[in-house]
Amino acid sequence: MKNWEKNLRETAPYIPGEQPDFPDMIKLNTNENPYPPAPGVRRALEELQTARLALYPDPEAKKLVEELSAQYRIAPEQIFVGVGSDDVLGMIFLTCFASEKPILFPDITYSFYDVWAKLFRIPYQTIPVDEGFRIRKEDYYRENGGIILANPNAPTSIGEELDFIEDIIKHNPDSVVVVDEAYVDFGGVSAVPLIEKYDNLLVVQTFSKSRSMAGMRIGFAFGSKRLISAIYGVRNSYNSYTMNYPSIVCGVAALKERAYFEECTKKVIGTRERVKKELRELGFSFPDSRTNFLFVTHERVPAAELFAMLREKRIFVRYFKTPRIDNYLRITIGTDAQMERLLEVLREYLRPE
Amino acid sequence: MKNWEKNLRETAPYIPGEQPDFPDMIKLNTNENPYPPAPGVRRALEELQTARLALYPDPEAKKLVEELSAQYRIAPEQIFVGVGSDDVLGMIFLTCFASEKPILFPDITYSFYDVWAKLFRIPYQTIPVDEGFRIRKEDYYRENGGIILANPNAPTSIGEELDFIEDIIKHNPDSVVVVDEAYVDFGGVSAVPLIEKYDNLLVVQTFSKSRSMAGMRIGFAFGSKRLISAIYGVRNSYNSYTMNYPSIVCGVAALKERAYFEECTKKVIGTRERVKKELRELGFSFPDSRTNFLFVTHERVPAAELFAMLREKRIFVRYFKTPRIDNYLRITIGTDAQMERLLEVLREYLRPE
Questions:
Q1: Model's pTM, two decimal places?
Q2: What does the radius of gyration of chain B's CA atoms come to, in whole angstroms?
Q3: Residue closest to B99 by CA, chosen among A1, A7, A4
Q4: CA distance B268 to B94
Q5: What's the pLDDT tens digit per position in A192-244?
Q6: Chain B 90-109, CB below 8 Å of chain A: which residues?
Q7: Chain B window 113-152: which residues touch A at a Cβ cutoff of 8 Å?
C-alpha cells in the first residue's frame, strides 16, 4: 500500500446489481414500471430547446418544485428535489443524522440505509422486524439520533397505517423521522398530511416507480421549511446544479398527466391482485403487498432454486442471499402478459410429478 | 432551537448566484459557451426511446465512458463520470482527502474547494497566489493531506505549463493531487498525459464549458485504476444511478462531433484575442487568459462601478466582493456580437469627458 492510499475513504467493494439485457427477457428484478412515461414526456423532449442546454439549469428547479407544489398542495419552500430518491435520502442522512446517538431502522428494509450510515460515519442500530416481517412501533420508542422507515417497506411489501407512523413520530420529538415512500402510490398510506403537524418529519417519494421514470432520476422530499432549507444548505455545499434541464422539463410534463399516472398505478395494482391469487394456488405465500412487487416464498421449493430456474427461462426476479429472507423472491409486477408468462413457467415447474 | 435541530449539519446560508432572465440580456457571468451543443445532441434527444426512461439507467454509464475512452485514448477503468464536475470533485474530496493533515489549494481559486472541505470536515489550508495571481509551485512542497489546483485557474484565467504541474506532483508522492481542468480546452495545457506516470494524480474536466452542455450536467475524471475504483466505491455507496439516460446518450453524441467542438473552442479563443486588444486600449489590464473568460481591472474606474453600470445596460458579468480581487471583473467570452455590444457600452462610459 502506498502512502497516498492511506488518505482514501474505503467502502465495501461494490457489486453492481444485475442489469440483464436480452431482447426476449422479462425483467421483474428492479421494481420498474412496465408502462412508459406519460405521453407528455415524449413531447417535452421533442420541444426541448437544445440551445438552452448550453446554459446552467435553474439550481432551484423552480418549475419542477412549483408543479409538485400544485399537485400535492404543499408550499414550494417545503419541497426538496434530487437525482432520484437515493440522492434525496443520501442528502437527508448527511444533513439530518449528525447526532452522536445511533439512528434506528429495521433489519429488513432498503439495503442502502446502512450503506449511507457507514459512508457518512453515522452510528446506527438495526431493529429486527417480527416473524411476519412487521415493524413493531414500540421498538422505536427509545433514545436515538434519528429514525428512517420505508412505508410500504421493501423488500417485504408491507404497508402500515397512518396512526402507526404517527405514533412513532409522536414518541420522537427530539429526532428527525424520515418516511421513505418510494412505493406508496401502489396502495400505501402516505404520511404527507402529517408534515404540517410535525416539523421533524420528512416524507420522501420518487418518480422511478409510479411515474415510470427511473431513467430520469427524480426524487423529492416534503417537510418543514426548517428541514428543507437545511437539506438545501448541504446540497448546495455539494453541488448546486444536480437537476439537469431535461429532468426538470420532463418531470413537470409527467406531473401534469395525473389521469395517466392514476391509470398506470391502477393497472399495476389490478395485475398484482390477479397474480396473488394464482401464486397462492401454486403454493406460494407472501405478505399482503401494497407495492408494485410481491415478496414470495414457496411451501416446497427453495427460493434459490426457483430464482435459478426462472433465470434460465430469461425471467429475472430478485433473490437476496441475506439472513431471514434467503428463502424469498422479490417479484416486480410487470404487464399482464409478462406475469402470465411467469405463471406459466412456474405452473410447469411446480406441477406435481 | 428544538432538540431535533441539534442533529442537523449546518452550512453557511446559501446565496444562489444571479440567474438573470431578460429576453434582451447579454449573459457573460457564468462562463457558459455562447454556442449551442453539437447538432448530434438535438438528434439524440429526438431519437431517445421514451419507454426506456421507465428503466433504471446503466449505473456504469458504459456508453459514455467508452466514448470518452475512445476520444481520449484512456482505458475505461481509468474514467469516472458524474453530474457535472462539481459532483466529480465533491466525490473526489469525500474519497481522496480523508487524511488528518490539511489539504492545500490557492487562496484565489474556484470558490467551491473550501465549501467541500467544510462540508466533509476536511482540514485545509489556503496558500496565497503571488501579486500577479500566479501560483508558486514551491508552496506545495510541504506535508499535506492532498492538493487541488485548477489549471487554468479561475477566476484568474492563468494557465501553467505541464512541467510546472509535474513538479508539484513529483514533490507529493504521498498525496492525491487533483488538477481541475474545467477550462483547459480554451488554450490550457492538460495534465492528462501524466496519469500513466503518476498513480496519485486525478485530472477533472467537464462538458459545461467547451462542449456547451452546462444544462446537462456531465463531468469526468481520469486517473489510475486504483483511484477511479475508490471514487466509484464512494459514489456507489451514495447513489449508484447518478447519470440519467438523456445525459448518457447526449454526452455520447456531443463527444462524437469533434470537429464541431474544435470549431466552437476556436471561435471563442478568436473572439477572446480580439476583445483583449480592445480592452487594453480602453485602459483595462488582465492576466493572459487561457480560458473562456477574462479577469480584468481598469486603470481608473473601480470594478464595482463598472459592474453596476453594465448591469443597468442588461450586460451581466461577474464581480467578486472578495479580498485581493474586489477591483476585478470576470467577463465570459460570448459571441462576437455580444462582445461588440459590451465594448460599445464600455467605450461610451469610459470616453474622456
A1: 0.97
A2: 21
A3: A7
A4: 34
A5: 999 999 999 999 999 999 999 999 999 999 999 999 999 999 999 999 999 99
A6: 90, 94-99
A7: 115-116, 118-119, 145-146
